[in-house]
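Hi R.,

Here's the input for the NDP complex you asked about:
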Amino acid sequence: MVVAKKYVVVAPFVGDPKPNNFTIVEEELRTLEQNEFLAEALYISVDPYQRIKLGHTIPYDMIGGQIARVIESKNPEYPVSALVMGHFGWRTHTIVHEDNAKSCGQKPYLYRLPDFGDLPVSLGLGVCGRVGNTAYFGLTDICKPSPGETVVVSGAAGAVGSHVGQIAKILGCRVIGFAGTDDKCQWLLNEVGYDHAANYKTVNIAEYLKQQAPSGIDCYFDNVGGELSSIIISQMNEFGRVAVCGAISGYNETDPEKRKGTFLQPYIVGKQLKIEGFLVNRLTNVRGNQLKMSIDKNKLSTISTGEPTYWPTDTKKISFLPKV
Ligand SMILES: NC(=O)C1=CN([C@@H]2O[C@H](COP(=O)(O)OP(=O)(O)OC[C@H]3O[C@@H](n4cnc5c(N)ncnc54)[C@H](OP(=O)(O)O)[C@@H]3O)[C@@H](O)[C@H]2O)C=CC1
Ligand SMILES: CCCCCC(=O)/C=C/[C@@H]1[C@@H](C/C=C\CCCC(=O)O)[C@@H](O)C[C@H]1O
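And here is the predicted structure with NDP in place:
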């Protein structure tokens, strides 16, 4: 009999998530029924949305995507040793019934990974998975940048932002990023390929943008929300486009007073801006063929020719997950 270990959220998140928000529980798994398979986690994704996905009554099993290997199967579509991406949560072993997995709220819920060749399969959670798709579809479907335009990215050194910058450069744009340390900014400039990068904690953001984007901003990929975003949006050109991807500056903030923002409507109306929020699942569902292509061919072939680049993250044992 297989005993799974899983993370259970036992205390609500207040501020930064902490180890005592979780406990690890052992779960004895039953034998497989027809059409089920047993998946063993190889890589588990730790993402900002996991702390704000609401509607759960404590205690609940921690959510999240993982790359897993099929180690036992009664489903010919998922034979032993196949690799899958699935939203199984933070757990070591999962009995998966394809129909149940497909009806869970977080699409894309379950699919087999293509052969990644020499590339690490963890990319199925990164550039060849939701991270890459969020960057690619958010930028190209919503910002729709043209060559020569100026694109600003917040959360630029994060998983999504570092890919947005690379894709924008591939599309021929001038790219400016904001990140929270000088080291991250150097990395953006020297390795990721951003044209300009600044530490939003120490720089005068409005002045910096006037210097580095003297002709104004055409596209803004917003990962953070809050005051940084308000300053950027107030400097956009006529018909500028904003892809609102996330609002990480507020995820740990429990004081509603600190979430109040600048009155932006005059800029939005005066400059006739388009500001659109998105969840990557909508864009990948609409462009389902491209999602398949991106994990089958496009992303992998562009990686193997050198762009976009990915930076594998150190992997840790499951006991380290809350610290990540
Ligand atoms: N819409 C969608 O479908 C999806 C949205 N997202 C969103 O994309 C965003 C980025 O996700 P991802 O790249 O995976 O995250 P990462 O965890 O890789 O990076 C997030 C970065 O955000 C920065 N950050 C944290 N707090 C603040 C703050 N107060 N102000 C400005 N920056 C801050 C931090 O960098 P620093 O040190 O530079 O501050 C941090 O490293 C998130 O908002 C996430 O919710 C992600 C996936 C799908
Ligand atoms: C202010 C919320 C911004 C969330 C951005 C984000 O990281 C989205 C990630 C999605 C995630 C949906 C998570 C929260 C959405 C809240 C609304 C809801 O459906 O409850 C998940 O579904 C897949 C990620 O791409």
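One thing worth noting: The mean pLDDT is 89.

Cheers,
M.
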